[in-house]
Structure formats: C-alpha cells, structure tokens
Design brief:
Number of helices: 5
Helix content: over 70%
Order of helices and strands: HHHHEEHE
Strand content: under 5%
Distance between the termini: 12 Å
Radius of gyration: 42 Å
Shape: rod-shaped
Largest sheet: 3 strands, mixed
Mean pLDDT: 91
Length: 238
Amino acid sequence: MLRQERLLWKLQELKIAENKLWQSGELKAVVGKLKELQEKVKEGEKELQTLLQMIERTEKEVHVLEEKSGNLARQIEINKEKLYQAKGSSLKELLSLQQSVLNLETEGEETEEKYWQLLKKIEACKSKKEQYQEMVKVWQEEFQDGVNEYQAVKNQAGLKIAEIKSKQEEICEQLWPEIRVAYQEVEKQYPFDFVAKLHQGSCLGCYIGVSAVLKRSVVEAKKVQYCDHCGRILINYF
C-alpha cells in the first residue's frame, strides 16, 4: 500500500503541474499583450474613421465657400460696375452702392479667411490620418507577431502537457483497481489535491485533526482511507 500511496502522490503532483501549464503565466502575458494590441488597433481604426469623416465634411464646407467666394466676387464686380455707371446719381445712391461694395468685399475677405483655415484643417487631418495609418499598421504587425508567439508558446506547453499526461497514464496503470476508482471519485471534488498527507494527527488537506481510529488505519495502510472532514484520500506522511 505504501507504494500505492507514493504513486497517488506523484499522480497528484503531475495533475498540479499540468494545471500550471494550462494556467501558464507566459501564455497569460502573451494573451494580455494581444488584447492590448487588439484594443489599440480598434481605437486607431476608430480614430481613422473619425478623421476621414471630418475631412469629408470639411471638404464639403470648402466647396460651399468656393462657390460663395465666386458669387461674392461676381457680385462685387456687378456693384462696382453699377457704381461706375452711377456717376450722375445722387450722393445717397452713390454712398449706398459704395457701402454695398465695401460690405461685399468684407464678407469676401472673411469667406476667404475661413476658406484658408478649412484648408489648413484638412491638411492637419490628413497628416494625422497618415500618422494613425502608420501606427495601426505597426500595431497590426505586432499583433500578428504576438499571435505567432502565442502559438509557439502554446505548442511548447502542449508538448509538455502531452509528456505529463503520458506519465499520468503510466502511474494509473500501476494503481490497483480499487485505488484508481477511489482517486477518480475524489478527484471530481478536488481535481488537484485529491490526496492529503496525515501529519501529527491532522489532515494536511483541510488541517483538521482526525480520530485516533482513522489515524491508526492510515498508518497501517491496509486499504484506502478518507479524511473524516474533507473526504480526501488520506495517506501516511512519508
């Protein structure tokens, strides 16, 4: 029975090692990096879409201002012509035409100023768009590199897990049938610590003292013994 106890303990150690590989910090680190890059790409693409929409809207505004500027220029020419032809008109009419020309010229200057500001805005947006395109491209490349790294780490972990499972099977083949059934049953509740050592009269699974009768039975190791409190398979401290 002592050899069976040692086999059970070794099997438990292998189960723990397998779980640690599945929960590998290296895998988690790569996954975390991938999520971060994925979020960056998502935000970058969102920003690009916003910039493209802004450029489109601003270009429409520029087009409207171009038409307005052209109309104002034509209106100014018409009013100047009227002013030139109205030399014999009254002072009031001349002043009115002159004020109209001045107002149109002022509006034209304001329109032209706004026009150039919008052009600068478009250039700034295009420059920013190019920067984001380059950043998104870099992030996408880093993401792909991360995927490759994750796959490599996962494959390596898979090989180690396969090796561990092979050792688990070897141990299971050496277990007595009743021992195998017992551990499989307890494993349902305690996947990685189905076996506990008895130390100084206490179960090291739940850290509660056991009865003197159970303690004696565990020490004698004639058959499978279970902790009175947690139900783990209880083995003598070795």
